[in-house]
Amino acid sequence: MGHGWEGVVLKLMRGKDFRFTVTGTEAVGDRFHRVHFTDGGMLAQTGAHPTMWVRVWFDNAGKPHQRAYTLVDPDPANGTFSLEFALHEGPACDWARAARTGDTIEATLQGTGFTTPEPAPGRIVAVGDPASLPAINSLLDALPGVPATVFFETGHPSDAELPFRLDPDHHELRAIPRENGGARLVAEVKAALPALIGDPTTAYVWIACDTATTRTLASYARKELALAKDRVNALGYWRATA
């Protein structure tokens, strides 16, 4: 399958193409699906870093359709990793539901990166939702022992069953139902953030929600709380349609 104009642009931006092979699948609750892969040589070339993601190509009625997914437990030595799909309607989740051992899929590595904050965070404040849970888990795994408060926007009662990797000695989870297009999450984070960040030179705020929410909270942290650019990592993971 060709990758259309998006694929051309990614090539111009030095994107690297790989073919992944499915080695197994598993359901994680009723709204999360995990697919295991061999990496087609990717990790041997690139290594792995926290929150690392790839653009995976799916067929959408004969047209190329790409979505970004965070690698779960990447293992460069064995060339393996998993992807987790927060299930909803669409070609990516349709593919994941139907995936079987031996199936292959194409992906492009371009745009991913992570810089470990220096000085080390006194506390991580992470804001996300089911779409960004794999990245949140990756971040917490990368900074073991660092206290963290996770604001997690939920849309369904079964979200409590998702595969959080929380250390009860260091991590606090604040689950917030999605209301008014993310307005409740914004309000609760804004109310809590000034007290949570402590010393702004060691604060670290990581935000990955819908694009509008992410933009609003990142602006608040940088402009209202005066956090330095390198102490706020923000990326909109999806666009709300309602």
Task: Give a short summary of the structure.
With 242 residues, this protein is an alpha/beta fold. It contains 6 helices and 12 strands. The protein has 2 domains: 4-109, Elongation Factor Tu (Ef-tu), domain 3; 123-234, 3-Layer(aba) Sandwich (Rossmann fold), CATH 3.40.50.80.
In words, what does this structure look like?
There is one protein chain. This protein has 242 residues and is of the alpha/beta class. The protein folds into 2 domains: 4-109, Elongation Factor Tu (Ef-tu), domain 3 (Beta Barrel); 123-234, 3-Layer(aba) Sandwich (Rossmann fold), CATH 3.40.50. Helices cover 25% and strands 33% of the residues. The protein is built from 6 helices and 12 strands. The protein has helices at residues 4-12, 42-46, 91-98, 133-142, 183-197, 211-224, and strands at 16-28, 32-38, 53-60, 63-70, 72-75, 80-86, 104-109, 123-128, 148-154, 171-177, 203-207, 232-234. The protein has a 7-stranded antiparallel beta sheet with strand order 4-3-7-1-2-6-5. Helix 5 (183-197) runs parallel beside helix 6. It is globular and about 50 Å long. The relative contact order is 0.14. The mean pLDDT is 90.
Query: Could you tell me how far the N terminus lies from the C terminus, measured between alpha carbons in angstroms?
Result: 32 Å
Radius of gyration of CA atoms, rounded to a whole number = 18 Å
Residue share in helix: 25-40%
Strand order of the largest sheet: 4-3-7-1-2-6-5
Q: What is the arithmetic mean of pLDDT?
A: 90
Largest sheet: 7 strands, antiparallel
- Secondary structure class reads alpha/beta
CATH class of the largest domain: Alpha Beta
CATH architecture of the largest domain: 3-Layer(aba) Sandwich
Name the beta content range: 25-35%
Principal-axis shape equals globular
Following the backbone from N to C, one meets helices and strands in this order, namely HEEHEEEEHEEHEEHEHE
CATH superfamily of the largest domain: Nucleotide-binding domain of ferredoxin-NADP reductase (FNR) module
Uncertain runs? none
Number of domains: 2
